[in-house]
Amino acid sequence: MTNYMGPVMAALALLAGACHAADTQAQAKPTAAKPATAATAADAAPAAAELPRWVQAPTGSSLVFIFDQAGAASKGSFRKFTTELAYDEKSPAAGSLNVIVQTGTVDTQDQERNDMILSADLFDAQKFPTAQYTAKTLAPTAAGALEAVGQLTIRGVTRDLRLPLKIVKTATGLELSGESAIKRLDYGVGQGEWKTTEGVGDQVKIQYKVALVRAK
Amino acid sequence: MTFSNTTRSWGALTKALHWVIVILIIAQFLIASRAHSLPRGPALIEAWGWHKSIGMTIFMLAVIRLVWRWMNPVPDLSAEIKPWERKLAKISHVLLYALLFAVPLTGWMMSSAKNFPVSWFSLFQWPDLVAPDPALSKSLETTHETLVKVLFAIALLHIAGALKHHFIDKNDVLKRMLPFGGVR
Questions:
Q1: CATH code of the domain in which B154 resides
Q2: ipTM
């Protein structure tokens, strides 16, 4: 971990210098650095815009989350979400990924629990009807796999998140899959009494499988 | 007091299982009553977590108890106990054993059907018995609660019988199951 800190601090210092004009803003909002990242990605892969575009097929996709409830791993899913992927297997790193989840479609097979999850102290779906994952770059991992380098926004809170991606060809297009884990409290999912992790754990596992077809 | 049963008295393990299950059933009733008065929230989730863990404990103890009963002699009833009393005792004991299994099992199935899996004190998780099904979960909830009422009714009969033997017939039926009471 420590050996990363030097370069990271240097990069931050450079970034701060570059954003000198908007200095105070940049410090208040880390997302202000976004345009710089996008520009770098575009420079590295000018072909990004021309990459084949893939969109989620009408069926065959699932977005599952597994949470700890009173010591037992419990499952839920989102019934509606949309995925867009720019991807070419010849230059996977040039790709990008965008996923929008309709939080109101949460399904834990129990209506009372669904309503609870959508309430103000948890997802607050009325105020935040969507959650979003946006990755402007995909990066190969040391193990030879691929991961999306992006940000996840839930309940208005945006955090960096790398998601492992397994992309395989299917008869109808591509299938993207993988799993990861996040901490719900990092995104403020759990206000008031739900800040405790006694009844419902902080860590939430996410499993995704998306059927993609070539966009027209 | 011996560890195993003899033809004259209950052993230590049988007595321990009997009384520990009695205490756990009372605890279950109190926790469930409290849970029904709690608003939806983490405290409610925890209350049901305890209820499920203790329920599965009762289930495991019931398995041990039944196996132990088969492996062990059952003390003889004294000759003065009438045939109708023997018959009633037999029926109520069979039903009590059956309910020690049926009540936890319907609770476990109901949890599976509700998609609220069962853990054992957060140490391990029990497999789901049925696929999530809200309608099935609702009917299992009714069954679970009805079986508890039957359990309590038969337990009352069981207690009444024990008291009758002790205070009216003045035999040793109650004394021989008391934790430290002994029949040589």
A1: 1.20.950
A2: 0.85
